Amino acid sequence: MYIEVVGVFTGGSRFGHVRQGLTCILNGVVAAQPLHQRLAAEFRARIASGRWPEGEQAPSEAALCEEFGTSRGPVRQALATLRADGLIVGGQGRSPIVRRSVASHSASALGSFTAWAREQGHEPGQRTTLQARVPATAAIAELLGIEEGAPVLELHRVRALDGAPALVETMYFVWELGKRLMEFDPDSGSVNRFLLDSGADLSASTHQIDAVAASADDAAQLGLAEGAPLLRVRRVTTDAAGEVVEYAEDRYAPGVTTVVVENRLFAAPSRALRSVPVRRDA
């Protein structure tokens, strides 16, 4: 058996007419790479090179058909491949949009938004919409493990990446910790960094991640339509003694981040098959 890859011209327009393509010869039988795959490779190259800029419209199906001298079928297949790979969005009935690069958050390191943004090469920002001492509602009291009506610090901010709204942030602190923040300007930067620098005991946090629909307030703050999907991260922070000191909820706009979860086996398998215990809190 032998395999040979050669360049071929089929003459007249791009991919079959103008551009050199690839042909695979397997045991002397010619098997050209399908047109939609060559188109998909070309479109990926245009995105990678910036010819199709992130956040901008790509050419329409009609324009691509004209450029490459082909029918809509291969173009649609190629665009569908890019859509499945997360490189473009939309496209049915209108020009697709090149998706912006989305930075990832490790689930084991969900913490300071400011530090994460700078690690990703973005400039973080924030706008405070509420900073007040309030009595804990029944729901917040249960989450913080305090009595209903006990004082807590409630803090609301809109966080930004490179000047664009990225998430709505809501935090509740037990008063012993929250009163320190009354001396802090939340518009100036990281709450976590201020608390740690002031000696606060922030030992561990647990996160719950799901998706919710944007409320009217979320939509107004983030510049989205009401009901738009948001990534929600709920966080409970404890001190070294295991006491809850903060409850927070972040609601990310679409396309801001993804969450990466890394799993490891808790025990190496022996030669014989055996069950492996599963952590109930995983």
Summarize this, please?
By secondary structure, this protein is an alpha+beta fold. It has helices at residues 35-49, 61-68, 72-84, 113-119, 138-144, 175-178, 191-197, 216-222, and strands at 3-8, 21-26, 29-32, 88-89, 97-98, 103-106, 124-135, 151-161, 164-174, 204-213, 229-238, 244-252, 257-260. A six-stranded antiparallel beta sheet has the order 7-8-9-12-11-10. Strands 1-2-3 form a three-stranded antiparallel beta sheet, with no helix packed on it.
Question: What does this protein structure show overall?
Answer:
GO terms for molecular function: DNA binding; DNA-binding transcription factor activity. The chain has 282 residues and is α+β, with helices and mostly antiparallel strands. The protein folds into two domains: 35-98, Arc Repressor Mutant, subunit A, CATH 1.10.10; 109-252, 3-Layer(aba) Sandwich (Chorismate lyase), CATH 3.40.1410.10. 24% of the residues lie in helices and 32% in strands. The chain is built from eight helices and 13 strands. The protein has helices at residues 35-49, 61-68, 72-84, 113-119, 138-144, 175-178, 191-197, 216-222, and strands at residues 3-8, 21-26, 29-32, 88-89, 97-98, 103-106, 124-135, 151-161, 164-174, 204-213, 229-238, 244-252, 257-260. It has a six-stranded antiparallel beta sheet with strand order 7-8-9-12-11-10. The chain has a three-stranded antiparallel beta sheet with strand order 1-2-3, with no helix packed on it. It has a two-stranded antiparallel sheet with strand order 4-5. Helix 1 crosses helix 3 (72-84). The longest helix has 15 residues, at 35-49. The radius of gyration is 26 Å and the shape is elongated.
